[in-house]
Amino acid sequence: MIGKLKGLIDSYGEDFVILDVGGVGYQVHCSSRTLQHLPSPGEAAVLSIETYVREDQIKLFGFRTDQERELFRLLQTVQGVGAKVALAVLGTLSPADLANAIALRDKAAVARTPGVGPKVAERIVTELKDKAPAFANVDPAVVHLAGAVDDQRAPRPVADAISALVNLGYGQPQAAAAIASASRSAGEGAETAQLIRLGLKELAK
User: One Pfam family name from the record (predicted)?
Assistant: First the structure.
């Protein structure tokens, strides 16, 4: 099983690169984001590899980091997500942005991927919510709050304050982060109006 390839870029295709390793050209399928970050033909490159072996073919998928490869594997554990859709998601969102979107239940961010509708995006953030946050770089308190709001477990003033900020045009992840910070400042029992006021101060920083 091939886990990593190091060689020279030979040429590019629409969704793949030919990597020359010791005179052997490997066709490696990559996300559009990965292809954009690879060097020009003739220059050296290293790719983490996921090898697919089927009865009629062997296919290689390449990634700039092991983290990206791990997310590619995780995405395909979701019903309705195959290699093509997983690559499309990773072409739209960086590994960190994808992990953050899943941690914050940000279905809209995932649904920006071409070919991914609201139902698949919802399955991705729901089924991976306990796995992908390990890659995220957001405040655990914000992740907890986003989960509570999504599951309708958040205190009413907190949920109402987030809803108010979303109605003002802020994204759900931004609003959740601002209100999480406001809740820490105000303490338990804070009223909606106070949370909104503190949340707007956070967003203005």
Answer: HHH_5
Summarize pLDDT for 133-175 with one digit per residue, the tens. 555 555 555 656 665 656 566 778 888 888 898 888 887 777 8
Strand pairing category for 44-53 and 4-12: antiparallel
**What number of CA atoms fall less than 13 Å from residue 18's CA on the CB side?**
10
CA-wise closest residue to 11 among 34, 43, 37: 43
Which value, to the nearest 10 degrees, does the dihedral of the CA atoms of residues 150, 96, 53, 126 take? 0
d(CA 190, CA 78): 38
Whether 95 contacts 68, CB under 8 Å = yes
CA distances 64 to 24, 42, 45, 196, Å, are 20, 18, 9, 41
User: Per residue in 71-99, pLDDT tens?
Assistant: 999 999 999 899 999 999 999 998 888 88
